[in-house]
Amino acid sequence: METTRAGLTPGPRTAVIWAALRAELDRRAGEPLSVIDVGGGTGGFAVPLARSGHRVTVIDASPDALASLRRRAVDAGVADLVNGVQGDGDQLAALVAPQSADLVLCHSVLEEVDDPAQVLASIATILRAGGAASIVVANRRGAILAKALAGHIAAAVDLLADESGGAMGAAGGRGGGGSGAVAGGGPVGGGGGKSQRRFDTESATALIVAAGFDVESVHGVRVIADIVPGTLVDSDAQALLNFELVAAGHPPFRDIATQLHLLARRTG
């Protein structure tokens, strides 16, 4: 099947991720890829990728999300290219055959799973040699800035204190005592739950490299898209999209974004 760029038109909040994905698809232009979308929900990425001729399996814990995915795929005319499997990132190795995927999407998943290091190891296992992983994580420094700009100064100070003490050494899995903290990506607020896990460029890179990847690029996602007035988004979305694309790869702008996107390639 011929692959195209059909449906890969992003908005300002996802433009940076789609730019990285398009570059990866262009490396293998005309070749239909086997894509695994971990935590892919209702198919915001899966369906456009399928419309471009790629076969996508979405793994998600929510049966409601998978039902919406199926309807979305049918409406887009790509039901034969999209498959939904109920499960979560912690079950990945049991759900997907080894070395069967060309591209794995792991967007906003490492914050939620019990063991991020194990999930990344599973992604490395299911990727073919030279395959790529598109990884999106919550950015600790972006969370600090967002709290401060929203007027929650005390909470921002607490997050800064957590950043100072959050690095926990080399890329490990869970922190002690069931805190859900990971190496350099510990919790950023009270309670220490895994959904509060945040990363920075250094800690996310270390975790991914330890799983057997080369990190080829790191970009900020939603550098200002979440903090500018909504009227700007509505009135000049193209200018905002252009800013996001230009600023995404440049520190310090990258380092204050809401999320970080890392494009990693399986070594060996």
Protein described:
The protein has ten helices and seven strands. It has helices at 15-27, 46-51, 63-76, 92-95, 116-126, 140-149, 153-166, 201-210, 230-235, 237-247, and strands spanning 34-38, 55-60, 82-86, 101-107, 127-138, 213-221, 259-266. The radius of gyration is 18 Å and the shape is globular. The two termini are 28 Å apart. Mean pLDDT is 87; it is low at 166-184 and 186-192.
Q: Unreliable segments (pLDDT under 50, ≥5 consecutive)?
A: 166-184, 186-192
User: SSE order, as H and E?
Assistant: HEHEHEHEHEHHHEHHE
Helix content: 25-40%
Strand content: 15-25%
- Report the span from N to C terminus: 28 Å
By DSSP, the count of extended strands is: 7
Major sheet: arrangement of strands: 3-2-1-4-5-7-6
* Separate helix tally: 10
Form type: globular
Which structural category fits the helices and strands? alpha/beta
Radius of gyration: 18 Å
Mean pLDDT figure:
87
Q: How would a crystallographer describe the biggest sheet?
A: 7 strands, mixed
Features of the shown structure:
single chain; 268 residues; 10 helices; 7 strands
Tell me the layout of helices and strands.
Blueprint (H helix, E strand, L loop, with lengths): L14 H13 L6 E5 L7 H6 L3 E6 L2 H14 L5 E5 L5 H4 L5 E7 L8 H11 E12 L1 H10 L3 H14 L34 H10 L2 E9 L8 H6 L1 H11 L11 E8 L2
Parallel strand pairs: 1-2, 1-4, 2-3, 4-5
Antiparallel strand pairs: 5-7, 6-7
Helix pairs in contact: 6-7
